[in-house]
């Protein structure tokens, strides 16, 4: 099969032919139809994650995976409902099944988790072995190139906004800020409209073209922040919404300077969920967080239940996409474009 592999960190991926993997009895072999390209792929290639755990090469990146079931392992239960030819998406976060997090369904934060695309096999290849319980069957009328990014770009902000909602942070009188309108932010705007109980949604970003995407997908207001102080952003926000601070923020970038700005604009009892990590450190004043009783939610990817909910929204036509399909041979070119923040929406490799 064709595979794009990391043989050495901080080097371009090597595009080569390797053996199609065997599967374990409890796995299915997925023939990859499409795989989204994520900034995490760039971070992986550039060695970022080596600071948090050793991932020895060769590694096949690509974790936004969809395709068809090519083969079903011998002990996969019939109750799984998986047959050859089924269309599936691959759920992230393959847990050990026995820890306290797995027991409540949060397999993606299992201490012994395995993530597709962060090891031997990933979506930048024509086949991937997947534990059957992490292959989620989807409606065949959905397009593969649109399904792929929903497994991360479309899943991660959904979970983050659910956390804010379940904590009481959303409502008709709550102003919601979506910071960073990249691959995740374009979906976050749509979820904020769906889950926000009518609260005004404000998209915040540096790139004007990306802000126009947010406007297209339902943002009530947009604010371009390039070169602006916190006070200037607050004035624009007040002009748009009647208040100069956000009641809830979903941060889809995690860039250090943007987080400092966002925290400075977070209201009393405000909720902040971060799902991005362009940066790796935050430095914000503590006192406003304490006396304002603000809540910070770390939110990582999503579990099977979250993904199934996103797939249901997609099946009902409630999610819009900004997609650029590319070929396998274009992977390294688009990794460079992604690294330079030059992609609008999501680039998706199709096979």
Automatic annotation (TrEMBL):
The keyword Nuclease does not apply. Its EC number is 1.1.1.1. Its cofactor is Zn(2+). It comes from the Bacteria. Coiled coil: none annotated. GO terms for molecular function: alcohol dehydrogenase (NAD+) activity. It is an enzyme of class 1 (oxidoreductase). PANTHER family: ALCOHOL DEHYDROGENASE 1-RELATED, VACUOLAR PROTEIN SORTING-ASSOCIATED PROTEIN 11. This is alcohol dehydrogenase. It comes from Rhizobium viscosum.
């Amino acid at each position: 099969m064709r595979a794009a592999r990391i043989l050495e960190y901080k080097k371009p991926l090597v595009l080569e032919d390797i053996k199609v993997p065997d599967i374990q009895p409890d796995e299915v072999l997925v023939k990859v139809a499409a795989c989204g390209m994520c900034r995490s792929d760039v971070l992986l290639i550039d060695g970022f994650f080596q600071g948090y755990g050793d991932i020895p090469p060769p590694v096949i990146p690509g974790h936004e995976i969809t395709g068809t079931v090519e083969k079903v392992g011998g002990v996969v239960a019939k109750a799984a409902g998986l047959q050859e030819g089924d269309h599936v998406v691959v759920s992230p976060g393959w847990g050990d099944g026995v820890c306290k997090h797995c027991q409540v369904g949060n397999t993606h934060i299992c201490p012994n988790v395995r993530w597709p695309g962060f090891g031997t096999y990933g979506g930048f290849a024509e086949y991937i072995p997947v534990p059957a319980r992490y292959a989620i069957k989807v409606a065949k009328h959905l397009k593969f190139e649109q399904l792929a990014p929903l497994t991360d770009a479309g899943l991660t902000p959904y979970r983050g906004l659910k956390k804010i909602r379940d904590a009481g942070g959303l409502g008709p009188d709550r102003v919601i800020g979506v910071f960073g309108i990249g691959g995740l932010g374009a979906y976050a705007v749509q979820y904020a409209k769906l889950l926000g109980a009518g609260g005004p949604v404000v998209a915040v970003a540096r790139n004007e073209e990306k802000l126009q995407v947010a406007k297209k997908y339902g943002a009530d207001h947009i604010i371009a922040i390039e070169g602006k102080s916190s006070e200037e952003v607050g004035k624009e926000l007040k002009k748009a919404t009647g208040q100069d601070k956000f009641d809830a923020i979903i941060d889809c970038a995690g860039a250090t300077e943007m987080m400092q700005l966002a925290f400075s604009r977070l209201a009393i009892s405000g909720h902040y969920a971060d799902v991005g990590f362009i940066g790796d450190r935050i430095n914000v004043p503590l006192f406003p967080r304490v006396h304002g009783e603000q809540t910070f939610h770390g939110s990582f990817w999503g579990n099977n239940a979250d993904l199934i909910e996103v797939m249901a929204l997609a099946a009902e036509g409630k999610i819009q996409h900004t997609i650029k399909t590319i070929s396998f041979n274009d992977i390294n070119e688009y990794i460079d474009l992604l690294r330079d923040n030059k992609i609008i929406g999501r680039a998706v490799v199709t096979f």
